[in-house]
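User: Please fill in residues for this 318-position structure.
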């Protein structure tokens, strides 16, 4: 058996003095050794997240002490959680649970009984805004492409960010009214997907999307007569239109004997809104036609690509 003191030829007082010094040195060594290998863990963190954020972070720091692996039991508001086993010197508890975090139990591989537990952490979770989106109408057409939006939230909102899905600029207007650009629609002309991102006064975000469906109707209006006599009254034949593909347009006019007297593929050439129109002249000779009943044939495609033909009469009078 190991003995700290061995008997020597010394007087009794000297013997006990040497023995006590050796004992002191021995126990000091054991104490320092254990202190160097003592277990220590600190829990810390103070995080505030929104309920739809990723995670808050609470850290367990083992201070480069002890012998891994470490085993820790922590509590949230005095409710014990599952044991954590880790070899990491700093362990990140990713959590969405609010409350006060404390350590209840800690040990390492050596388990020498010398441990130090300190610190606390706190996590606050703020509920995201709950929003409802109302629209004046969820189906639009080339004739009526306007939609009004209204947002109702259980929290005070700081901002609204709108992407209407029709290629128009993103806007931050509150409860906007939007005029959709149906010519820019995708998804085979069936719908727009409008997205809203809101931020409340706590800095929490939420998103909502709404489909605006498209009825790709078309319309034409044209007179059945005109009088190109330069009296500034109904001098040109023109049309009002909507919901067609400009590049698909073809407009022909025939005389009563079936001869082609006017033809254009440019719808802008006879667009009333542009104050344009056919002046009743032959498209080749540029001579004014005689008063008569003429026949028009109209070819076009609507926004979805459906093909149409229209026929009718035009009375030219002077």
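Assistant: Residues filled in for all 318 positions:
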């Amino acid at each position: 058996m190991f003995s700290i003191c061995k008997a020597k030829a010394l007087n009794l007082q000297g013997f006990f003095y040497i023995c006590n010094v050796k004992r002191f040195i021995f126990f000091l060594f054991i104490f320092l050794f254990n202190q160097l290998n003592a277990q220590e863990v600190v829990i810390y963190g103070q995080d505030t997240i929104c309920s739809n954020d990723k995670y808050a972070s609470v850290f367990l720091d083992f201070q480069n002490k002890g012998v891994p692996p470490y085993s820790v039991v922590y509590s949230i508001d005095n409710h014990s959680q599952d044991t954590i086993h880790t070899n990491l010197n700093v362990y990140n508890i990713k959590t969405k649970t609010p409350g006060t975090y404390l350590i209840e139990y800690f040990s390492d591989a050596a388990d020498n009984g010398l441990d130090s537990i300190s610190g606390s952490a706190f996590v606050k979770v703020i509920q995201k805004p709950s929003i409802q989106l109302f629209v004046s109408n969820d189906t639009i057409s080339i004739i009526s492409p306007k939609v009004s939006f209204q947002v109702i939230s259980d929290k005070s909102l700081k901002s609204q960010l709108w992407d209407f899905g029709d290629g128009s600029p993103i806007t931050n207007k509150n409860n906007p009214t939007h005029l959709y650009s149906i010519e820019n629609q995708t998804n085979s002309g069936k719908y727009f997907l409008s997205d809203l991102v809101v931020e409340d006064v706590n800095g929490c975000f939420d998103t909502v999307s709404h489909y605006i469906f498209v009825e790709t109707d078309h319309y034409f209006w044209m007179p059945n007569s005109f009088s190109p006599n330069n009296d500034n009254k109904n001098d040109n034949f023109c049309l009002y239109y909507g919901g067609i593909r400009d590049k698909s347009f073809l407009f022909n006019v025939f005389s009563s004997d079936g001869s082609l007297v006017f033809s254009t593929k440019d719808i802008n050439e006879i667009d009333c809104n542009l104050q344009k129109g056919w002046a009743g002249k032959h498209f080749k000779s540029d001579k004014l036609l005689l008063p008569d009943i003429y026949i028009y044939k109209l070819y076009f495609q609507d926004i979805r690509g459906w093909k149409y033909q229209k026929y009718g009469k035009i009375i030219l009078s002077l």
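For context: Residues 41-126 form a domain with the Immunoglobulin-like fold (CATH 2.60.40.10).
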